Amino acid sequence: MKKDIFILLAISLVTSVYVLANSDTDSLYCKVQGFGIGLPQEKVYLHLDNTCYFLGDTIWYKGYVTRSDKGTLTDLSKILYVELLTPDGYSVERQQLEMTSGTASGMFILKDSLYAGYYELRAYTRWMLNFGQCEYPHISRKSHGFYSRKMKDDYIRDYEKLYSRVFPVYNKPKEEGRYTKEMTLRPMRRYYKARKLKPTAVLRFYPEGGHLVQNTTGRVALELNDEEGKHLEHIDITIIDQDGEKVSECQTDKRGRASFILKDISPEGKYKATFTLKEVKFSEKLPEVEKNGCALSVTQTDSTAEAFIQAVGIEREIALHVMHQGVSKFYLPLRKNIKGEYDIVKIPLRTLSTGVNQLTIFDDEGRIYADRLFFVNLHDYDKPQINISGMEKQYEPFDSITLCLKLTDTNKQGRSVSLSIRDRATEEPIYDNGTMLTEMLLASEVRGFVENPGFYFESDDSIHRQALDLLMMVQGWRRYEWRKMADVEPFTPNWLPEKFQTIAGCVNHAEKWNVDFKKASNLKREVNVWAMFVQNGKTIELKQPTRNGTFYMQTPKIYGEYMLFLSAAKQDKGTDYITRSRRKDFTDEEAWPDYYVKLDLFHPHFAKPYNYYQDVPQKDMPHFEGEDSVVRTSFTNRYMPAVTVQAKRGGLRHYDPTKPAVVIDAYEAYNLMADYGLADRPFYHIREDTMCRLLASLFVGDMNMHRQYYYEKRYDGKTQKTKNWYRLVKAPLEHAISPVKVELPKPNIGGYQTLRKYRLLSWLDKFYIYTDYVPREQGSWKYKQDNQPEVIIDYRLYPDGQYFPACRDRRYRLQGYAVCEDFYSPDYSRKPLPETKDYRRTLLWIPEVKFDEKGEATVRLFNNGKQTVISVEAEGITGKGIPIVYKK
């Protein structure tokens, strides 16, 4: 009901603007305008305490969430989700943070049991998940693979753009305080021979406005990378027509980008781009030429943005619209002049906003003929928002450090600033080095990863403007979908801005299949859902009737870990019935419940592939300007564990039981399978072979290939007699791998009673999953060989014969709001003892700096136990939505 009210309020706002329209293009513009005001998006930025970490370290972070229409800290969502993902793309931990005034702070501990590599922090609000949805790459699966369409959609749902921050995590120092930057990656069983092939290149074209239109002059941007995504710079590219005649040429810059002009585009123009790379010639076709359409060219002067429009075969009324972060800034219906052409549209820059602006040419039916991103810099963000004084060139061991912070804007309302002071010697320069400014104005508005985004803000000269304009042109994605905003395409938000903690899900009859795959539930009559929350011996019970077999329930405010028990009963059954049912067979996991309750899983399940520059080694990076010798005293090595023995199968290393890809609580894994609709019955009633297949589906998936892979089941490290081949889909025979017979030792795991324990959650502790497959490398050439990655699933019982009763009904171990500890800062005001050791890398982390009425603050701390050059980094936002950035 609350969701419906929220949507109605947003629609009423759009409608109130719509009534002012005088024409069809006016009405579409008014809808877009109302959408941007009524349904703003949210953006996230995380400020971290350091640039790299070592196993055993703690990651301290501060989350800032802004709203797109105002640029200020959000007042929509009150909950922020932050996830730590492994280099392979598996989840380590997810935290739920309570936001006050649009900010929240937290911490992740990098346990010694993890492996080194480039880790990712991903952050979002539930409201953000309504936008930019797409499907994770996969091959089609039969409908009966999931319990309902909604559960299938939840599983494969992915997002074009969520906030992400990638950083290196190195081995734990062998000697305390000696920070040698070495990475020992997760050991793989299979090794892959280097391919001896010709060089590879991926060339993509981006016509300005989106299309090549016949009989017009058009500008085309391009981006040239190798197969791994590394930019190919200084490559000469020649454009030829269907007759082989050269019509244009260009050369890629250091980011592999360039642009060229095509004059008088021929209707029969089959244009090609040719270039040579390492003495190998390449040829790539340009996009097809459109017979009707609109060619668009955008340039900027000191005071205007000028749009030159060439229309061919367009008879309908068209208009030009510009918006910034979803908010309408300029609108103009277009009229042809006496010559039957459109005049150049001059848009005053003062009517626009600093940042990425989106220009759209559309007709009265909502068809988009051309659109273009362009960056406007009004220099209203140039003025420093904070000054920090008191830094010395170098500090002696245990020295006192005093810094003075001064804000230029003393208005307290809506302001927030975090501060990090660290040892510069152990920092790591990386390409993923964005700030609050670069993220909010640039990186969040464009597709994919923007390496070293600060480059575009270094200067406003022609070189930087050209590079920035090329970045705007090589985008095939729009954060703000104009046709949905104009109500030409449907938009229905799945989630509201979260104000409090909730649970939602559906209820089904136990042992009854969902006949109607399109429905989330197979109920014919509504029931009551009973939820029992247990924490530290305290219990709270809530009841919620279903609606179309689904439920949505506000929960108590909970911090830390708690237990949730879910059951359902007919609506005429009261508390006494639920109490009696819990006394009988409640801990019998082999019993069937009356109804089966499932929770909705809205969190993204898959990880995005890394851009080449997100996990590039330091040795491949250029030196940063202004870098001193202290920073370069360490080096980086990345290597796999040493291997001396190989198996006969021509590519298998010894099985290493110490480094699984995933370790997950058995009960949690079962809950995930059940809630994603992969399992529709209690754990004990799932066949063993089916359970292995479901676990493989959950954590490995289908690799987006019509291929087989085999999985192996182990019991506490001991293998079974055979390996089971698992084929996810029916694929043509030529796409399948021929089964390979493998001789395996017979297991020695005990008798029937011992074997039976591996089928009961009461005895099962964890699943250890081993695989050479890396989700971030989906589609890699390594997985196209005959040596398909295998999946080993190891069932682990509780140690020492321990037993923890499972439940007939659904039981969850969940996390409420994460509780963040205070950062420890030692006091050396009295001279420390001679044996005192202090190896801190982050000397001070303050998630919320307290300023006085004058906007001033004084920070005092003490150095670590060695001579140190410090780095100071302050980030935040003013009450007016202006980013605060200080890095020195």
UniProtKB/TrEMBL annotation:
Tell me which UniProt keywords the record has, alphabetically: Signal
The leader peptide range reads: 1-21
| Superkingdom, natural source | Bacteria
Protein name in the entry: Macroglobulin domain-containing protein
Q: Which organism is it from?
A: Paraprevotella clara YIT 11840
Q: What is the lineage of its organism?
A: Bacteria, Pseudomonadati, Bacteroidota, Bacteroidia, Bacteroidales
